Structure formats: C-alpha cells, structure tokens
C-alpha cells in the first residue's frame, strides 16, 4: 500500500493502491497541492524517487512545502525529487500529441530515464485539453499512457476551471478523492473519499486543518473521537493505532431527510429548493460532476436531476449513478423531453419519475412525497411527509360561482391568492367596467366561465376570477362569441404576481371602480351551472336572457 501521510485517512483505508491512478479534485484553496506534496514526501522518506509535474515555479513549490514543515531541498539535490514544469508552449504542442504514448515519451525524456514510484500532476487539466475541447478518448489515452510508467499517480483537477473534464475523467481513474474548504470555518477542510475500491469506510469524510510546521492536523471540529491521536499530523508512520469512525452518514440518516437538487438553471433550481426546503435538508448542484460527487458525499434520500446538464445529459448521469450503486429515488425534469422516445430513454436509464417542464409544483411535491414515503430505507424518517406534502386546500368552489355581493368577491380573491401562492400557480382577474350593461356582461361571463371560475356583478361592471392559469385571451374570445351588444365597456386583465398584498390591493381598486360603498350591498347569488338565481324569487333580465339562449326558458 502507498501511504499519503494523512494518518487518519491511511489508517481508515490502508492508504492507496500501488501502481493505480487517483483523481483529486476541488476548488482552489481546498488543499489539493498540499495533499500532493504530502503524498510525495512520504515516498521520499522511504527512499523512493518521485516526480511532480506542475505549472508554477519550483521555488514556489519548495516554499509551500517548507511552510508545512517539509524540507524538500535535500531530496532535490539528491535527485530523489524531480520537479518538471509544463512547457510554455504546451497549448500548441498538445494537439500534436494525439496518443498517450507520445506524452509518456515526452515525460520520459524530462525524467532522463529515471524510474519514479510516485507521480503527481498539479494541475492535470492541461494534459486533457486539446484545442479547448473535451475528449473522453483523449483522457483515456493520457491516463492509460502514464499508467505504463508503473507509478502511483495523482491527477489534481481544479474546479470550476476544469470541471468540464471531471465526468469523463472519473471513468478512467481507479479512485476519486474530493477536497473542499469549509465555508463557515476558516482553515478547515475536508477530504471526501468518493471512490476507493477495496476500502470499507464507515465515514468517507476526513476533516483537517493546516498548522504551520505540522502540515495537516485532524480537526477537532469533527464529531469523531480519535483519542490522543487527534493531535497527530501528516508525517512518516509505518504503524497506526485503531480508531473509531462513527459514520457521519449514519448519524444524518437518523435525523432529517436530504434531497439533492441538480439543476443548472438558477431560477428552476430555486423553485425546487423552495418547494423542498420546508420538509428536508436541500443540497444544491449545478453541474454533472458536482451532482455525481455530492450524490456520493451527501448520500441523499432523493435526487432531483435536470435533463439539460452541461457537458453530459441527465440520462447519462442517471446511468452512472445506478452503475455506482445509488438506489435512491430519482426525479428527472427537463424541457427537451417532449418526444415520447426521450421520456422512455430517461425511465430506462433508471429515473423513477420524468416531469416535462413546465409542470405544476403540486405534482412535483406529491411525486417526491410518494417516492420518499414508499422507500423502505427512509420509511420511518419520511413519516411526517404523509401530511407535510399535502397540497394546500382549494378555495371553496362549486355552488355560488356568480354573486353580486362584494364581500364574497373579496373573500374568494384572498383565498385564491393564498392557494396559488402556496402552490406556485397563476390566476387572472378580468374586469369589465360599464354603467349601462353590468348585468348583461355578468350574465355572459357567468355562462362561459369554467366550474372553478368566479364571477362578480357590480353596479358599474363585472369581474371574473379565472382560476389556476386559465388564459385571459381564451376567455375574452369566448366572451366575444356570445356578446352581441355594443362594446360600451373597458376591459382590464391582472395576473397574480405572487405578492402577499395582491388580493388586498386589487380589492381596494375594484371597490373604487365598481363604486361599492361600505357596507357592501347584498344581492342574489346565481348558480352558474343552471344559469339562474339560487333564490327563485330573484332573477334579473340578463339571467332570463341567458336562460333563453341556453334553451332553459
């Protein structure tokens, strides 16, 4: 086994495998370079010959190692440490090096025939780029080519700069490690073992801090008891004590549910996060590599994945997840699945639900609830979702869909606003203003409106609440087909803007336009389905005309 020098990591997994390739990725400042130097330093302490292919100057590398407490100068003088800079004309030379063997030949020339046991590329991105494109075949050739050196290799990849290489690159690496800085605690970083074949880890996360002259020291912020070994740093060690690693994933799984939302569109992602956040912990991902890494690191209970992911589509991501053993429910969303064949492919890849945009958030939440509550792995923790995900109750609908009582309009408008805000639904209010034909307009509106719509007839006009996104254009077109009197009225359409004040503001506006003086006048309530008053003793001329037109007179 090949030790990295990170005592707790090496003890937990036994180090790295000889002659294997490992991908180490993360944002700048996450500790990739330091981990690479620690890996090489361990080899130097064991009298191995090692090499570092880098972008920066050798002097900067020597100073970096010295800040961590490692003096590389003696090894450099003994030719045990070989530092190789990328050539300045690398971008021009790469397209000519089509085969991995060509690159190996170039490196062997730089090594001057010396055999190395450990090799680090920091960063590895320049090796994979050819004309600015992303070629999986080229990556395979590079990795397989350098594997011929029989060295244990670390390929360090910076994100987000080289994130376009990650998805394909992971397929050709034996192991994958992810380094990330803690956003809340300065100096704290975490090493995530995303893929380490043969290692049985109860906790794939190892948190550490930098300390001058000590290198990386295991962070005491971890909820892990290391005993006296918590103070040990990166350094030479041939034997390690046995430590207890309570699984972070197991601790989390005893608590709240976690949902991974992988969506490159910020607006769509926020929409889904808002829908799920009241009921579970939400982890967000923007790209394919981010989604794949977080699915391993966060162990979510539900994955919501967009079809349109940059670099690699959602279907391929689902296939990778299923092949890697991920069994959690997956909901796939997207705009580019309008053909039945596309939706069939998405389901065949392993997605449980496919939702074509635009979709109703109520449908999304109910699918999420059903998948989670029926999953045996999370059944107990998802029990609260049986009621938490219930769709908000609809406003009172049915009888009384046409009224001349303004208070009923006010109450219905407030209820419709609450309902549509809770379920992210639109609705529209169409208003007609006239002093001569209010009842006639109200009668036609009541007759042509749908069962969920609501019509108010006032002294100087009428208003119709078109529930759940009914098109105002379609409604007005139906109105024109029925209306054969002069157009001596004004029409206004107002769509629900999602604000808390929408109903109150529109109520005040309509009260003024309809000249409603408090207290609101009482009036007859008409039944839209039959077209006549619920009170058999009250029936306007407009309703009588409408009944006649409907053949009910």
What does this structure look like?
The chain has three domains: 7-235 and 244-249, Rossmann fold; 255-388, Response regulator (Rossmann fold); 402-549, Alpha-Beta Plaits, CATH 3.30.70. Helix content is 36%, strand content 20%. The strands form three sheets. The protein has a nine-stranded mixed β-sheet with strand order 3-2-4-5-1-6-7-8-9. A seven-stranded mixed β-sheet has the order 19-16-18-17-15-20-21, sandwiched between helices. A hairpin with a 3-residue loop joins strand 8 (205-211) and strand 9. The radius of gyration is 33 Å and the shape is elongated. The termini are far apart. 42% of the residues are buried.
Reconstruct the topology from this structure.
Blueprint: H1 7-13, E1 21-27, H2 32-45, E2 50-54, H3 58-67, H4 73-77, E3 81-85, H5 90-93, H6 100-111, E4 118-122, H7 125-128, H8 136-147, E5 152-159, H9 166-171, E6 175-181, E7 188-195, E8 205-211, E9 215-218, H10 248-253, E10 258-262, H11 266-276, E11 281-285, H12 288-297, E12 302-306, H13 314-323, E13 330-334, H14 340-349, E14 353-356, H15 361-373, H16 385-388, E15 402-403, H17 406-422, E16 428-433, H18 438-448, E17 454-458, E18 461-466, H19 472-482, E19 490-495, H20 502-513, E20 525-527, E21 532-533, H21 541-549
Parallel strand pairs: 1-5, 1-6, 2-3, 2-4, 4-5, 10-11, 10-12, 12-13, 13-14, 15-17
Antiparallel strand pairs: 6-7, 7-8, 8-9, 15-20, 16-18, 16-19, 17-18, 20-21
Helix pairs in contact: 6-8, 12-13, 17-20, 18-21
């Amino acid at each position: 086994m090949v030790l990295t020098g990170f005592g707790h990591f090496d003890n937990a997994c036994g180090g790295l495998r000889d002659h294997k390739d490992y991908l180490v990725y993360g944002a700048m400042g996450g500790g990739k370079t330091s981990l690479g130097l620690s890996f090489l330093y361990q080899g130097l302490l064991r009298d191995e010959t090692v090499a570092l292919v880098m972008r920066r100057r050798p002097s900067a590398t020597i100073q970096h190692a010295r800040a961590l407490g490692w003096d590389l100068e003696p090894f450099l003088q003994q030719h045990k440490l070989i530092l190789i800079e990328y050539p300045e004309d690398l971008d021009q030379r790469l397209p000519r090096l089509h085969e991995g063997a060509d690159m190996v030949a170039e490196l062997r020339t730089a090594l001057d025939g010396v055999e190395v046991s450990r090799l680090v590329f920091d960063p590895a991105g320049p090796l994979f780029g050819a004309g600015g494109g992303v070629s999986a075949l080229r990556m395979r050739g590079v990795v397989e080519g350098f594997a011929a050196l029989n060295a244990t290799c670390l390929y360090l990849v910076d994100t987000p700069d080289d994130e376009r290489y990650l998805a394909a690159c992971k397929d050709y690496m034996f192991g994958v490690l992810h380094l990330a800085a803690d956003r809340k605690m300065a100096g704290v970083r975490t090493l995530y073992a995303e893929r380490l074949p043969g290692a049985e880890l109860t906790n794939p996360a190892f948190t550490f801090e930098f300390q001058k002259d000590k290198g990386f020291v295991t962070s005491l912020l971890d909820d892990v008891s290391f005993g006296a070994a918590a103070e040990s740093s990166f350094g030479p060690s041939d034997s390690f004590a046995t430590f207890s690693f309570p699984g972070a994933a197991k601790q989390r799984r005893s608590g709240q549910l976690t949902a991974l939302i992988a969506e490159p569109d910020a607006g769509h992602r926020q929409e889904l996060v808002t829908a799920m956040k009241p009921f579970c912990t939400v982890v967000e991902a923007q790209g394919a590599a981010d989604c794949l890494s977080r699915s391993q690191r966060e162990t979510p209970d539900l994955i919501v994945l967009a079809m349109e992911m940059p670099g690699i589509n959602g279907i391929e991501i689902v296939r990778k997840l299923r092949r890697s053993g991920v069994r959690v429910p997956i909901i796939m969303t997207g705009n580019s699945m309008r053909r039945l064949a596309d939706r069939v492919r998405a389901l065949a890849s392993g997605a449980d639900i496919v939702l074509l945009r635009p979709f109703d958030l109520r449908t999304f939440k109910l699918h999420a609830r059903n998948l989670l509550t029926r999953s045996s792995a999370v059944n107990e923790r998802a029990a609260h979702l049986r009621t938490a995900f219930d769709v908000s109750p609809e406003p009172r609908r049915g009888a009384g869909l046409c009224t001349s009582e303004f208070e009923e309009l006010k109450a219905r408008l407030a209820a419709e606003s609450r309902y549509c805000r809770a379920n992210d639904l639109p609705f529209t209010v169409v208003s007609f203003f006239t002093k001569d034909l209010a009842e006639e307009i109200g009668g036609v509106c009541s007759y042509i409106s749908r069962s969920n719509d609501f019509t108010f007839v006032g002294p100087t006009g009428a208003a119709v609440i078109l529930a759940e996104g009914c098109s105002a254009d379609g409604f007005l077109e139906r109105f024109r087909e029925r209306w054969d009197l002069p157009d001596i009225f004004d029409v206004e359409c107002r769509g629900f803007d999602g604000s808390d004040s929408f109903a109150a503001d529109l109520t005040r506006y309509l009260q003024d336009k309809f000249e409603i003086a408090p207290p609101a006048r009482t009036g007859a309530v008409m039944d839209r389905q039959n077209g006549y008053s619920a009170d058999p003793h009250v029936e306007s001329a407009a309703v009588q005309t409408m009944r006649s037109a409907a053949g009910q007179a």
